[in-house]
Specification:
single chain, alpha/beta, two-stranded parallel sheet, binds 7,8-dihydrobiopterin, binds fe (iii) ion
Amino acid sequence: MTAVQQDRAIPQHRSDFTIDQGWEAYTDAEHAVWRTLYARQEKLLPGRVLPAYLQGLRELPIAAEGIPDFRRLSESLMRATGWQVVAVPGLIPEEAFFEHLANRRFPAGNFIRRPDQLDYLEEPDVFHDVFGHVPLLMDPVFADYMEAYGKGGLRAMKLDVLDNLARLYWYTVEFGLIDTAEGMRIYGAGIVSSRTETAFSLGSNSPNRIAFDLERVLRSNYRIDDFQQTYFVIDSVQSLLDLANQDFAPIYARIKAMPELQAGEILPTDKIITRGTGTYHAA
Ligand code: HBI
Ligand code: FE
């Protein structure tokens, strides 16, 4: 079979929503989609992405040639930071997702987007999950942050404040920017795995770039159907981990009484790095 599957059958999953990756079953056409995406990002990322990301990418068996084998990825990750990559059929329920992260397992979609979806798809596929997320799991501090997020997710579910916590993931793990000695860099997987947003997030004068503030972020709605109107900029992964290693319960209690903030809204208390023109919309 050479064609990319058009209608993906959802495989039977285990009780923790994992499946076998089925690496041997990928077609040439599917590996070719990976090669195309990889080649595009490989050209763009140097000088734009956090150096720790590129180091992780180099040290892992993630290569230009084709979709990586999760067994080999997990062996390398386990040795470096104690993480594993497990295959899932797509989005999984929140509790199962958090349970995996809390136990240092990263759930990655095993399927790859079709050739007509190179720039946009709704569900996280193997390129987004593995190319976007996995390299930073080689960084010991980022690896601890992801575990802390999983544990925080399980607590947030009990408090019924998942909408708040999910914004932290969105504005850091998916769409985070970081200030480095060499300049502003991307580290969020939603940016790293997207050709268009890699250029937009750093280069466009349209979005706001605001210094990261935990309480502010937990209150900030986001858009899932367009480029971000605001990016939040951390000053180090360590400072992010230090924040995540606390119980957010008092913060949730405090912000409950405060209004939610709209995507793109600016507060007088914001430490603005660049104020956007807000003129660009992809969608
Ligand atoms: N499942 N496979 C997968 N990947 C995700 O990123 C994911 C998920 N389920 C839930 C979820 N994300 C979010 O709801 C949480 O980050 C809040
Ligand atoms: Fe993601």
